[in-house]
């Protein structure tokens, strides 16, 4: 017995050292892109009916305020203009684009080649996003205007948060006055802050080529970005119901020509700019996204697009947006399901807490909406971290807390693997014949990292130990983490000579 204990002690020391070493991606309990799609709020018949309703809307109502280019493309394929100047899309054209032309998946690259990902199928990734105009200040618990530095700092934090896969800018740089300065500096700040895939928006079509040229510099020369696109263009192309946002539509055409993967964003608000009936809101959003998908693929067949059905919900008592509601959760899950059913890359918005603080309300709103979207199989879940106040505001502390949440949700999407080894019948027999518990068993120690995930700042101490450790809140611990990272971490993926070249060519105003 003594000899046996000695062997276990020596082996345990080695195992402890192994557990303390950094984990490879393959050894983690959670990895980017788990397979979702197990939650299905809609039946097959309901999806058929919704798709038919969307086709009817496009064929009989159509899109208002169409650009001359879109009109010419659709008319050449059998479309027509209605008496009230709405562009009508033939059913067969839209169906052909969906089934024969649009790409079912594409590679989203990253400046770190190891962080690229395949978008499509049933793979689930978590992304930030948003156009908040405020930031929550931890010390005062009050909001202030968001700045370009906030865009850069958020990206630096994302670069250190394992469970956030894509950084799409979360807040508006309100210290940028001119639209060109805003577009170029957003694009630069996102790219300079993280080596993960990124995303941004463009207010003006004339800026799209400039941003592509900036990214060409980073990759080594003209045309390189189109070969290895690492930035998604988020494009809110529609003013619901069924009217093009003209400048965004012009930008969308340029984004297609310059090789940007495009998130085609429809964000009607149920009860305000889309029907209060959730099914009607779903059908309208699908029709709008199909219109954009058709036009982009007529410009650039097989262009990488994400069907960004983001149907928002109103609190019908006040008309205010309700980003954290049960209705929002099921509506976005249904959006993901129907896009995947069509065989197209999907992207929905979740995590849009209505709470103004990273508190219990924010936690349950975010966990509900993100979980349903993930289990429905949305390829990209936008707004998944860092947003508060119905996406009016960002919070660095919320970003860190949400990273823990995303890790836990990722683990639920992964599920439980049933094999002869994991069923553990032999292990159970060994324990019954031996120590009587599993705490020191080799299986327990070997699976601590591969089967379980652990929070970065979440508290699992006993009440007494929590008190002894300072009795801190999650927001306090997140703030400490944020402060430490922002004080010590500077990204190194952008070579200084390339940075100097970019600053010489464009009006970059970020100083750090």
Structure description:
This protein is of the alpha/beta class and 512 residues long. Helix content is 45%, strand content 12%. It contains 19 helices and 19 strands. The protein has helices at 2-20, 44-60, 68-75, 91-101, 148-158, 179-193, 208-219, 224-227, 246-257, 278-299, 326-341, 360-376, 396-414, 420-423, 425-433, 442-446, 463-468, 474-488, 496-505, and strands spanning 80-81, 87-88, 105-108, 117-120, 125-126, 134-137, 142-145, 167-168, 198-200, 231-235, 262-266, 269-270, 305-309, 312-315, 320-321, 347-349, 380-382, 387-388, 393-394. Helix 5 (148-158) runs parallel beside helix 6 (179-193).
- Helix/strand class: alpha/beta
For the CA atoms, what is the radius of gyration? 24 Å
Which class of the largest domain in CATH terms?
Answer: Alpha Beta
Estimate the helix proportion, in percent.
Answer: 40-55%
Quantity of strands, as a count: 19
Q: Residue-averaged pLDDT, rounded? A: 94
Measured by DSSP, the beta-strand proportion falls in: 5-15%
Count of structural domains: 2
> Which fold name corresponds to the CATH topology of the largest domain?
TIM Barrel
Question: How many helices?
Answer: 19
CATH superfamily of the largest domain: Trimethylamine methyltransferase-like
Shape: globular
Low-confidence stretches: 1-10
Characterize the main sheet. 5 strands, parallel
**Strand arrangement across the biggest beta sheet:** 8-9-10-11-13
The CATH architecture assignment of the largest domain turns out to be Alpha-Beta Barrel
| CA-CA gap between termini | 62 Å
